[in-house]
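Shipment paperwork, digital attachment
Item: protein structure file
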Amino acid sequence: MDEQNKAILTTGNIAKQLLLLTLPMIVGQVSIVIFNITDTFFISRLGEEQLAAISFTFPVVTVINSFAAGIGIGAGALIARYLGEGNMYKVRRLTTDTLILGFFFILLLSIIGVLTIKPMFRMLGATESVLVYIEDYMSIWYYGSFIVVLTMISNNIQRALGDTKTPGIIMLVSALLNAIFDPLLIFGIWFFPRMEMKGAALTTVLSRIIVAIMAIYILGYKRKLIVLKRVKLKELFASWREVLHIGIPSASIRLALPIGSGIVTRLLSTSGQLVVAGFGVATRIEFFALAPITALSSVMSPFVGQNLGAGKLSRVRKGRVISQNISLIIGGSIAVLLWIFARPLALLFNDNPAVVETIVQYLRIVPIAYGLAGILQISSTILNVLKMPYLSSGLMGMHIFLIYVPLALISHRFFGGTGVFASLAISYIVAGLIALSLVRKKIGELEVTSKKMT
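Attachment content:
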């Protein structure tokens, strides 16, 4: 096995390894959030309609990112397992073939997106005045969205190798580039033209192109995992089947949230565009707050995959327990902090009372369930690596479509936005408890089967 690409997570202190893997990932997750919040912050200075426009784009942008992430998750889970087994041929094959798959798949979705901007966002409840700004943003964003997939897949592969520092650095560079060029292109500072919403979209595309080049260079030149010579169609399609077996259900998991968010956005739009704007800002603040938990969930894929490939199920079980306990501690701490600082955070983005009150309500209700929301994420990751993607997607489907959306539809009639936000918290609690029990059972079954075979 290549020395630089060997499995490194199959021995050593589990808690220490998880923390060391998670810390760089927190930097990466925070960078993604900074990227999104930077856009929100500067766009909010253009006006409330522009702020509402960027909030309406969130569900659709997340749909595209979900497909890219699903493919990356499928590749990462498989590569970690093959790395644990010591099969470097399959690691290289999957790396190369997944990048090819992701590029063409997202390119197709982007073309469809460009052709359906107006009907899509009218369906979400955008008014004609807000739709003008949405079209300015999305008409540029779509053309560069296929670049996003290359970075996301590359980062998942790096994490599968046990390297979370490189993806963290790549995401940090992307956020810094976005923060530098956003004000220049949005407001026309220095010799740059004033492009407003178009400038925000162009900045996103340019920054992603630069980091995509970085990511591909590292995988191809430094790690030598991209092999384009003699690409056999039979092997290419075999790799795609393996990746999509996990990737499609994983994408559906990630799609569940934006679809649910789209339904809720449409529901909240009946209370006015200002409520939608407040909801959009609150969800972006939430991404920042949940960065440690999301990072912890991400690193469970390489940890579980490498140990599963090496046949070390006891380490998988111990890692699950440790990660879930950490999630509860972090989630509780975040909830307390957001309760205290909800209003000051809201005022950073807007001073309209309706927008501020929506943000405050969200940040004082939903975070109560963050600990169990983290357990839901961790459990979903583990099930994917165990090659049980349909159980994983079923958990998220239950969370969104059987609990959250029905409760939101009912509670909105009686309690407005407060009822919607409480419904989300309840759905996290119920789904998190079910996920905890399910994953414990599945790992136990694997241990019993393993003992019988030895």
